[in-house]
Amino acid sequence: MIESLLVANRGEIARRIIRTARRLGVRAIAVHSEADADLPFVAEADEAVCVGPANPAQSYRNTEAIIAAARSTGAQAIHPGYGFLSENADFARTVEASGLIWVGPGADAISAMGDKINARNLMAAAGVPVAAGTTEPAADLAAAVAAAAEIGYPVMVKAAAGGGGMGMGVAVDEAALRTEYDKVRAFAERMFGDGSVLLERYFPRVRHVEVQILGLADGRVVALGERECSVQRRNQKLVEESPSPAVSPELRTRLLAAAVRAGEAVNYRNAGTVECLLVPRQRDFEGDGSGADEFFFLEMNTRLQVEHPVTELVHGIDLVEEQLRVAAGLPPTFDPDALTVRGHAIELRVNAEDPKRFLPGPGTIRTWVEPTGEGVRVDSGYAEGNTVTPFYDSLMAKLIVHGEDRTEAIARARAAVAAFDLAGPKHNLPFFADLLENPEFLSGNYDTTIVSRLR
Hints:
Keywords: ATP-binding, Biotin, Ligase, Nucleotide-binding. InterPro entries: ATP-grasp, BC-like_N, Biotin_carboxylase_complex, Biotin_carboxylation_dom, Biotin_COase_C, CPAse_ATP-bd, PreATP-grasp_dom_sf, Rudment_hybrid_motif. Its EC number is 6.3.4.14. By secondary structure, the chain is α+β, with helices and mostly antiparallel strands. The chain has three domains: 4-103, Rossmann fold, CATH 3.40.50.20; 132-201, 2-Layer Sandwich (Dna Ligase, domain 1), CATH 3.30.1490; 207-454, ATP-grasp fold, B domain (D-amino Acid Aminotransferase, Chain A, domain 1). Helix content is 33%, strand content 26%. It has helices at residues 11-23, 40-44, 63-73, 89-97, 107-114, 116-125, 141-151, 174-192, 249-265, 308-315, 319-327, 406-419, 429-435, 439-443, 450-454; strands spanning 4-7, 27-33, 47-52, 77-79, 101-102, 155-159, 168-171, 197-201, 207-215, 221-233, 236-242, 270-280, 292-301, 344-351, 363-364, 367-369, 376-380, 387-388, 395-403, 421-423. The chain has an eight-stranded antiparallel beta sheet with strand order 13-12-9-10-11-14-19-17. Strands 3-2-1-4-5 form a five-stranded parallel beta sheet. Strands 7-6-8 form a three-stranded antiparallel beta sheet, with helices on one face. The longest helix is centred in the middle third of the chain and has 19 residues, at 174-192. The radius of gyration is 21 Å and the shape is globular.
């Protein structure tokens, strides 16, 4: 096993990785910005190094400072968490060129999946279903108009180098496409340094379901079930659950097999997620509840996902431990040929944001009392007295519950939300209280537009 690990991240994910490292007897090293010096993950690490000011470009995305911190502390490996440098192929190469172990997939896999057009083409070649769309960037507006006419409206206009729900727009006709193309291209150039744009078929009523994969040290790729991620605002997730209430056993077999093929196509190692769109039959929205016929590849996230705890709870494994074992060349703690699913898990992302408009609401935490009890887990990045600053993502904690079935998990989620005593920053716990009483959500028969009907 790796003996010392530098965690190149912050907040709840840094704290969560440190927790597993310390349980395994691995020396945990934190890096932090000046703004995060008082956060729990810094205090809980065996050693901590300040790598720069609040601006992420000067701290958490500062490759030179992070590598220097690893060298000065004698770290053997680097875990990037999610966000920041986690899907930066150049950083992965730099880590390995520095003689350190990279806890993640190979740089070639990161590069292959980082470009959405290249990823779509690779997946199609591997037999993974992809929606109708462009196989090369739409070089200009005329090319985009021609492609949309062939695909058929409505179309999704996407930044080829984008991710995390950013750099996307919907065009219902040519007039809208002319506006969205320029908007997405400008955003992509500003945010990602790459203005490449792709178009693909847009489905107004769709579910977002993803599969957790793990590429093992021996070369095999294993699928660890699916997660339902359709409760979203601005194309970004708020709630995840596993298993998905929309996925039948037959569909699950096809979905997991496609995810394994996706991983094998890029010789995937370590943890990753294959995200898909499920297109339900129209009668599903009329109360039939009989599942979805089609699914299409959306993208592959070459890192640990925010929502990984729901997979951990239903499979009884620690994905961070599995990541470390793969990076060290060790076999998994579980039998890949005898995976079992136990019960149902739900994760709620507790953000410092307005519960109606979902606008950021940073501030100092005056009260922070986490819920406890059977089947309740809280992965938090803050504590009472800490300040949620505007420099980073608004995620404060993940409230995860597990029950013997979905009904019990929802009941535990309701109780946990009510018991979470949080004051200071704006927060979205009231939104979750409403969602957990909503008939559409309770039925399990919902899609990515559910939040718009709750506001």
